[in-house]
Model the fold of this input.
Amino acid sequence: MVFTLYLSAMLLVCVAIAHSYLGERYILCRLFKRNNLPKLFGSDDFTKRTLRFAWHLTSIAWFGFAGIVVALIQPELDKLVVAQIIAATFGIHFFIALIGSKGKHLSWVLFATVSILMLMSKGV
Done:
């Protein structure tokens, strides 16, 4: 049973890495060469940045799930550890959304709030 959880976590990490790398190399770069992307805030820069950070947030979420799967292996599941993994995952989401959109995509506010609230909850 423990082996299946470790294997699941490993597969999540592998798919997260592959998703970010292959998506950047074969999808996003080709998509961004198009000249018909929506122009928000005066150019297509916001659109490209939003697509890029949203693409990579999916991979970060899978890393977070891998962490939770590994936490499930512990004989006594510590809710605080799970809360900390979620807080860290959304903390990274916050940082990527803030930097990736130069603060224009307001999802960073939600991600920061979730991260802080998870830390404050102390795993109840």
Summary: The mean pLDDT is 94.
